Amino acid sequence: KDIKTVDDLRKACPDMVAKIETEAINAERTRIQEIENATLPGAEDEANEAKFVKPIDSASFAKAVIASMKAKQQKQSKDYLDTHYTEKITLDALAERFYINKFYLTRVFKEQFGQSVTNYLVQLRITQSKRLLRFTDRSIEAVAQECGLNDANYFSRLFKKVEGTTPGEYRRQW
Q1: First and final CA of the chain: distance in angstroms?
Q2: What is the pTM of this model?
Q3: Which residues contact 13 (CB under 8 A, 6 or more apart)?
Q4: Residue 119: its H or E element
């Protein structure tokens, strides 16, 4: 959806907007209360002035809401990866699932979590495969498939690239 104004935002996400407005009002009330309780010279003047301060301007409000939406989308995409890593996941499908551009998804995911979507998914799969290799007797092919990698040769190459050892050697270490 194209959100260009605060009204567009209110229509698209009424619950989130209401929550942010409530939080902003409560924060402002707390700030006023702190100023009123202060015993510093001139605190009374600042408290009186604060009571008449306008609510957040619409640009600041829109930025806050958009930042909140970004964080929520990224958390949702990460949670989705955490629960569906065993499935075939493409960046296109992930972006489509959350109604966002794949380039935007990649950039913001990396900003928030410190690694790309692809690297995060690889790490998830390798971590799970290490657990399976260590604590089960499943074949390497079965482990690969259970971790969302249907090609055992690709799995072995990827595992060695990430861990510096093959899956079989890793299993023998334990």
Answers
A1: 51
A2: 0.64
A3: 65, 69
A4: helix 117-135
C-alpha–C-alpha distance, residues 12 and 162, integer Å:
42
Q: 87 — alpha (psi -120 to 50), left (phi > 0) or beta? A: beta
Q: Which of 156, 139, 3 is nearest to 69 (CA)?
A: 3
Structure-block tokens of residue 40: 């510093």
Q: From CA 129, how far away is CA 1, in angstroms rounded?
A: 38
Q: How far is CA 134 from CA 5, 87, 137, 146, 169, in A?
A: 53, 22, 8, 14, 11
pLDDT in tens, 23-61: 777 777 777 777 767 655 555 565 565 555 555 666 777
Rounded-to-integer distance, Cα 48 and Cα 116, Å: 49
| Rounded Cα–Cα distance for residues 80 and 127 (Å) | 17
